[in-house]
Amino acid sequence: MPSKFFIEVNPMPGIKTTHVRQTFQGLAALIIIMTGIKLGSTLVIPLLLSAVLTLLANPVVNFLGRYKVPRIIGIVFTLTAFVTFAIFFLGNIASTVQEFTAALPGYREQLTETFRSAQVYLAQKNIPIDLNTLTDSFDPSALVSLLTNMIGKLGSTMSFALLILIATIFMLLEAPLLPGKLRIALSSPDHELQSMRRFLRSFNRYVALKTLISMVTGLLVGSMLWAKGVNFYVLWGLVAFLFNFIPNVGSTVAAIPGVLLTLLQFGYADAMMIMAGYMAINITIGNIIEPNVMGHGLGLSPLVVFLSLIFWGWLLGPVGMILAVPLTMFIKIMMESSKRWRNVAILLGPDGSVDKPSITGTEQHPQENR
């Protein structure tokens, strides 16, 4: 019988089948992990907030420990300070939101009058436009319902406050033991611990500077609106402070309510002036002061920051949008410590360079760069 010959054809020359299989396996694992996080976001978000609170509180606890303060006392003191600040901050927001909700129906009449005068002006310029539809679409009850839903979501998050505090306490108690455990568990502990320390330094620096810059932004916005006499200027200053943590789009979105309320109270000219003030504050702080103060310590390209904002916002909601930059920083630094993913870390950076940690012995043991 004639022999049969089989010719093996590689559909993608230069690409090993093993690499293709590993790539698809990695993508499948990533999709499964993302699905699990999305479905379990109710539990993931409190634990993630506990981890972030631990990263913020641990340096303070360690500082108190240098002065012979027992760790458990330092933990209680630090967390009590955090909780006190959070209660004061959220209390101011809640009281101001209630006042704004009570005054909201009256803004419908002001909006109707504003649109009526605009319609008369446009008619004089031979531009006939019916603005009654816009007036009818401004439904105060819908806005009140929106604010109620937002407060309800905030309340549901606060229902996990006890879980967040307990988890944070255990994480802070475990923190001194973690380096020793990782040295035993990891195959190349010095290399990977160095990457974790780099992330902690970058995270603490980012949070400290971002908080300071956001406070300055909120104070400038609140002062500007107070000088103009805009109602609820404290609320809009707090909104500017919070939304400044959301990269790229947060400061722009925070300007919308202040400009609209100025339009209702004072008219178009003053609203344009307030809009110009917002733009001046955002451009000065976002494009001049913040880059000079924070430098390129993030190690992320602007496109990656914007895409991470969309991704983490979709995955974890508002908490993900606020933590988009730290989470992406962590992933990038972990990729830099891996030989397999280092090329992906280059794509996430602002340029073609990757910070390679200088670890003694890493060059002698390249197999450790997994």
Structure description:
With 370 residues, this protein is mostly helical. The protein has a domain at 38-185. The chain is built from 15 helices and no strands. The protein has helices at 17-39, 41-65, 71-124, 132-137, 140-158, 161-174, 178-185, 189-228, 233-243, 250-266, 268-294, 302-316, 318-322, 324-336, 342-348.
Mean pLDDT: 76
Helical stretch count?
15
- Measured between the Cα atoms of the first and last residue, the distance is 51 Å
- Supply the helix-strand structural class: mainly alpha
Radius of gyration: 26 Å
**Topology pattern, helix = H, strand = E:** HHHHHHHHHHHHHHH
β content, as a range? under 5%
How much helix is in the residues?
A: over 70%
**How is the biggest beta sheet arranged?**
none
Q: How many runs of DSSP E, i.e. beta strands?
A: 0
Summarize the entry for a quick read.
With 370 residues, the protein is mainly α. It has 15 helices and no strands.
